[in-house]
Amino acid sequence: MCGRFVLIQVGELMVRFMVIAPYPGGHRQDPGPLPAMFSEPRYNIAPTQKVLTVNFQNGERSIRPMRWGLIPSWAKNGQKLPLNINARDDRLATAGSWRGPLRNGRCLIPADGYYEWTGPKNNRKPVFIHRKDGRLFAFAGLYDTWRHPFSGELTRSCAIVTTSPNSLLRPVHHRMPVILEEEAEAVWLDPSITHVGSLLALIQPYPDEYMEAYPVGNAVNRVAADGPALLAPAPEQPFLTEK
Questions:
Q1: Active-site pick, 60, 107, 116, 183
Q2: 107 has catalytic annotation
């Protein structure tokens, strides 16, 4: 699964994901600065917080903030649903929350890495997982738009697709987020592609030779904690396996 992640290289988003406009709507514009609340590195992004997504709007790629934790458009009450932060790949084509977004609500969720917890249930320890070369990557994401039944206010929200782990992460957890190959990102975003089989074919464990995982300190357990110190290796902690 993926319950916390990191986005550090915010200044590289426009170039890395070939984004023209920071936000959709109105006129085509050159890449510009993100709003202040999203312009700083974030080292401990947690569920229900706003995250940056890349999606396809009005014929071009745009960056749009969304709530992490998908609320289906058909929900009667957005506050009484399970916290849908992850979407299992084996349920995308059948589960009510995911069928529509798989066809019409796909996005990329940029990240520099993510955290996973492993070990016995009463002594879970955090592990930081990232690309060996330090490059930005993208989770495969799904999103939907929910309208409040009384106020009419719209909430755009998203979830990260998960799949079976690669050999590096199998000792850590039985699921991992889907990290798309760069060639697959364009296909995932393409609104003209709605064939379920073609989309599911993109969902694969990311090659373990490109990834690195190491234990970090328990400070990341606190949602309020932030800053680069969270990524410092914790050599005193063994690389535990899930029980």
A1: 116
A2: no
